Structure formats: C-alpha cells, structure tokens
Amino acid sequence: MMHTILERQHIESGQFDIETRRYYDTVTWLAEVLPGSMRTPFEYTYYNGELYGSDGSAIGTIFDNSIQEAKSLPSYELRRRLLEKEEYDDMLAMMQGDKPNTMVVVSDFPPELMVATQDMGGYNVARKQTMLRVLLRTTDNKLQMYSQSLDGSNRRALEAIYEHLGRNAQPGELLGQRISVDLATKEQEFLTDWLTAVYDRTLQAQYGGEWYAGQLNGRKHNTYDFVRGQQDLLTAYLATTSGFTGGFRDYALAAAMKDRFIGRTESPVAEYKFGGVVAHQLSLNEMYLAGNSAQQRGETFSGCGASIGRNSNSGTESQLQSLGFGNQADKAKSGGEKLVWKDGICRIDNCPTRPGKTKVAQCSVCRSCQFWFDKGRDPAKLYKGMQHVQKESFTLQFAQKKQTKIRKTKA
Q1: What digits encode the pLDDT tens for the residues 57-66?
Q2: DSSP output for 229-242
Q3: CA-to-CA distance for 67 and 208, rounded, in angstroms?
Q4: Rounded to an integer, what distance in angstroms lies between the CA atom of residue 173 and that of residue 359?
Q5: Which range of residues forms the domain containing residue 389?
Q6: Cis preceding-peptide flag for 355 (omega within 30 of 0)
Q7: Which of 141, 178, 295, 323 is deepest in the core (most CB within 10 A)?
Q8: Same domain for 193 and 49?
Q9: Between helices 248-261 and 18-33, what is the axis angle to 10°?
Q10: pLDDT tens digit string along 264-323?
Q11: Residue 154 in 3-state DSSP?
Q12: CA 22, CA 57: separation in Å to the nearest integer?
C-alpha cells in the first residue's frame, strides 16, 4: 500500500527517478548484449490517461522523443519508431478498455540489416534477434510487458506464432502486425512461454536438434536475471559514471559481464566479507582487464540501440580514468592546480600499489587514492584492516595471466 501511495505521489509530481532509470537501462542493455536468451519484465501504471514507468516517467514522452531522434538516423529507424508509437496508442486503448486485455508484438529484425556484416545501432547482425513483446492488462490497473529475445528471426517460426494465435501474418515487416486477444489470467501468465516454445518447435521441425529461444542447445538461463545478480559490477559502474557514453567504461562493463556469463571468469566470493571498498576496487580492476582483453579479441557489444566496439576511447589513460581510477584527477579544482602525473610511489602507507611505482601527482598520491579523496573519503582509513586481502585480490588476476604466458612460452 505504501509503495502505491509513493508511486502516485511520484507520478503527480511530474518527476522521475534518474538513478532508477539508469539502473534498469543498464541492466536491460547488458541483458541483450549477453549471448543467451533474455526475458525482461516491465510494469507500467495507468493514471489520468497516461502510462508511467517504474521510474515515474511518462511513456508517451519517451515515444515522442524517440521519433525526433530517429529523424537523424537511417530511414528504417524512423519507420519502426512510428510503428512503435502506434503500439503505444494500442497500449492506452487496452487500459481504457477499448481493446482486448492482451497484445502480442513481433518486433522482427530490420529487413534492411538481414544481410549486414557489422553491428550497428544496437542490432547484432550475427544473432538477428526478434523481440517478442507480450503485453497484459491486469486486474489492478497495471500493464505488464515481457520482452523475450528470439534469435535468428526465422520467418517460418515467427509466422507460426501468428498461426498459434489464430492469425495469418502478412508479407513484409511484422513489427506493425500486432495481435490483440482476450485471455484468462492463467493463459496470460504462461503466454510468453508458450509462444517461445512455438518458435523453437518450428526450428526443430526445420533443422532438428534442441532449441531454446532460437538458439541451438541454448541455455535456459535468463540473461536479465543473471545481470541483476552481478551487483558488485553494477554498483561499481553506476558509482563511477553519470551516464552511458558508448566509451570504454561501458565497453569494459559489458566485457566483464560476458566473461562471467560464459564462465571465462567467476564472480568473486571473498569481497563481501571485507566490505565495500575491496568490492569496489576489485570490480573496477576486473572491468579494466576484461575490457582490454575484449579489445584484443576485437569484440563488439550490441543491444538496446547501442553498439560499442574495440575503439571506444581505448587509450590506457582514458580507460583508467573512465573506470574511476581518479576520474576527476586530471581536472583542476575550483581555484586549484591541475594535477600532473608522473612515475613515483604513493605516499599513502597502506595503498595497494605500494611498494611498487605507479602514476602519482604533485602531492604524491596515486590515482586510486585520489579517487577516494575526490569522494571525500580517507583512503588510509578505508584500506586499514583490509590491505592483505586487497593486495592479494588485486594481484591474483595478474599472477594468473603471467603464469599462463609462462606455460605458453614453455610449450
């Protein structure tokens, strides 16, 4: 009840929670980036003729803004966003009782990109994902939406979804061919599962094998749930950035998340025992290493309207800075001196970089310690009691990497 009251107050104020939006935008982008099936849940509140997201923002304004942005993008983007605005109009009609309580939208891969060889605008040309959207009007005046990825955009399998719901798909793009139907609550609950299974059974009939969400031998692990479980990476990223830029910080986050998802690395288990400072530094370090490795492999990460590749602000200094290692360190403070970096030893006695040399400023403080000073914290106190664990954790990945190189040399 309290949540409902606060939600209503937030909506009536005409404001939205920027941090809530950032969190969900980040999680959704990462979930689409990962090489697995994604099912993202959304819930909208209907109030005074408008739908509002969980962050309090009006959905109609978002659709209008996206149309304006698309005018400077390839022509297919404007066509698709105008179709999505029609979808929004149908969403309002559902809430007003003028349309059935359930709508299915097949947002197929843009026809213009089916033969493309390079990711662009968030479209992954290797996976060619369709986004199956299932929208449900609930009995408590909410609109629930589930967005399920279907790899391959196999036309025969997508048409089978229409046939399952008693419709015939027409030639051409499917995005504007929305399906409206009245369903019982229990039918609504399992509809996304049923339609995904229809897609997979059609693929099995065509090619044999076991399919899940359009992937042969695909993992039944929702990437959205996986991303939300990596709280250490998400917290460190959100704390050291102010928004998505398509730069190295975003690239490195996606690389670290993918490495964990495919089992290349594992989520640390010791950091939570020793508090947030170690967890924060370990996460920044993990993202930095993962980002560099992904760049060497030439990887590109695509999802939710953004594709970022190996050349995203790839300089070492910009990488360190964007990941929070002194993110304000090179900027002159108000009325202060601009910091200049040179090799030296950090003067903070228990700094993890000691006794080795690193980059320090005129005050003999390294970038990591400067980061905490910029946050108004004393790094010496933060590191106290944690130094052994922090050094050991920081050097573990470097030691493993060095050992791998030694083994390769001997071989």
Answers
A1: 899 998 999 9
A2: T-HHHHHHHHHS-S
A3: 41
A4: 55
A5: 229-331+372-410
A6: yes
A7: 323
A8: yes
A9: 50
A10: 887 765 444 445 677 788 889 999 999 999 999 999 998 776 788 766 543 433 333 333
A11: coil
A12: 12
Pick the closest to residue 290 from 242, 257, 325 (CA basis): 257
- Which sign does the torsion angle of CA 321, 326, 328, 334 carry? negative
Residues 145 and 190 both lie in one domain: yes
Distance CA 179, CA 94 (A): 12
Largest CA distance in the chain: 73
* Contacts of residue 324, Cβ cutoff 8 Å, sequence gap at least 6: 236, 239, 240, 284, 371
End residue of a domain, out of 197, 221, 245: 221
Q: How far apart are CA 23 and CA 405, in angstroms?
A: 38
- C-alpha to C-alpha distance for 379 and 398, rounded to whole angstroms: 23
- The verdict on residue 150 lying in a domain is yes
User: Mean pLDDT across the chain, nearest whole number?
Assistant: 81
Last residue of a domain, one of 179, 201, 221: 221
Instruction: Please report how many Cα atoms fall inside a 13 Å half-sphere around the Cα of residue 63, on the Cβ side.
Output: 20
